[in-house]
Amino acid sequence: MKTIDELIDEGVAGRRVFVRADLNVPLEAGAITDDGRIRAAVPTIRKLAESGARVVVASHLGRPKGAPDPQFSLAPVAQRLGELLGADVAFAAGPAASAGTKATVDATADGRVTLLENLRFHPAETSKDADERGAFADELAGLADLYVGDGFGAVHRKHASVYDLPARLPHAAGGLIATEVTVLRKLTEDVKRPYAVVLGGAKVSDKLAVIEHLLEKADRILIGGGMVFTFLKAQGHEIGASLVQEDQVPAVKGYLDRAEELGVEFVLPVDVLAAAGFPDLKTKAPAAPSTVAADAIPADVMGLDIGPRTGELYAAKLADAATVFWNGPMGVFEHPDYAEGTRAVAQGLLDGSAFTVVGGGDSAAAVRLLGFDEKAFGHISTGGGASLEYLEGKTLPGLAALEDS
Known about the structure:
The protein is an alpha/beta fold.
């Protein structure tokens, strides 16, 4: 695929460059709580602006139902993007294909940036009907002369701005996407060993496909988060009131058996932090957790984090690794009483000498929330779902659309 540097060498000064970024940041009462994805988008946007392009940035935010919804407006993102760029960013507040938006884009001076309103305010952006998506892509193409795909967190979606629009304009991959692909290849091709994978998060069903694929590649797989209790259940252990996906127990048993056949070490917690109920994440009120054995969780409590002995075990299992991929927190890290398991894994990555990839989503948010230096990790991905699907060996529509034709 063509790189942004090649596109710039061909000349972008005075031309309208549509940058499909991923600015899908968390908001609370209209305030951005984690600007990681905005900061990740800045280098490509800045490079184009400094080359004299008239930069038109577009993104989605949240899951609006195909209609304008103020709680999902990108207005706060425009302000933060401007702060990071050190220059005002014009915000086209109307529908992306409206006359008002076109006027705002046309008024963008060379070297300046305009941000469009949330693309998902248009039902055609996410439509499964190719003709509907295509018609919307035609309208977006009218706003630009060139296309740069740089929203890695969206490349696994067959959406109009990700998949259909590149076919209508000369296109290139932005710096962020190029970096993500280079890094993920290090996890799938000529991997340095030992190769350890740490998987967490709430639902085991979200990770089964990647587990199946990684069984052929990883040397050891460490499991945490809410999904761990389905694994413990599959081993016949008592899990109390903990989260479990009963329908996934047979599949999990199969993967445990397969791992044993392949000689892949599957590492599960030896202890967990548990409580009688889910903690209050708004007030962060003390939750008074207790440490219990992972194979005998009392009936009246639920597991909410890996325990201290497990944190030490996991750190030890990461110590000699040459490559580590981590996706998903070890517990309810948003509450300080259940953040230590996730902290132990993050610190274990830093204490070792492995090439470390933090697989986006909640893992990336946890790194920032817990105060770790992002630059200390090998790479922090901006796309949790996209990273997982890449590791599953799937063809990602947004990457395929950027391939040279």
